[in-house]
Give the backbone structure.
Amino acid sequence: MSMTIRHALPDDLDRITQIYTDAVLNGTASYELEPPTRAEMGARYEALMEGGYPYLVAERDGIILGYAYAGPFRARPAYRFIVEDSIYIAPEAKGAGIGKALMQALIDEATILGFRQIIAVIGDGHADSASVRLHERLGFHHTGRMEGSGYKHGRWLDTVFMQLAMNGGATLPPDANSMPERRFVAKGGKG
């Protein structure tokens, strides 16, 4: 059966929590040291849904193999056109092209919503990391590195920042019909 990429649903959160727990306990992409509970993962999911952000899963034969979402990069309103991506793949599904398919779908959704930039904040962002290579293949460019910014599994880790422009990036004025601008105006803001 082929893989399907779709919007995440509350029923997916048990599996999403399992995938993230493995990443926290065994990986260095997340700088969390203790896996969040299912309730915390549910609260994070709800916050993204209330904000109108895209949250996707990759599924094959009824099993979620990975997930990706875009959320606010920073809380201040001038950042409203930028999102930060997160992507996690189940250990048994790594290297099968699921990450690329999920990230491309996430980029497509963020573009449709009218965002202008996607930022990747990559923990343990060494040059040959799978996440760095994935983002490079999708057109992200390197914008910075914070050396020794995280300490996990007995070693210091660098954090890499990468960025992808969409919808004209910073070359065009904001689109008044974009989701981030409509939400901002609805809250009484003026750009």
About this structure: The longest helix spans residues 98-113. Strands lie at 4-7, 55-60, 63-72, 82-89, 117-123, 141-152, 155-165. The longest strand covers residues 141-152. Helices lie at 13-26, 38-51, 98-113, 130-137, 179-186.
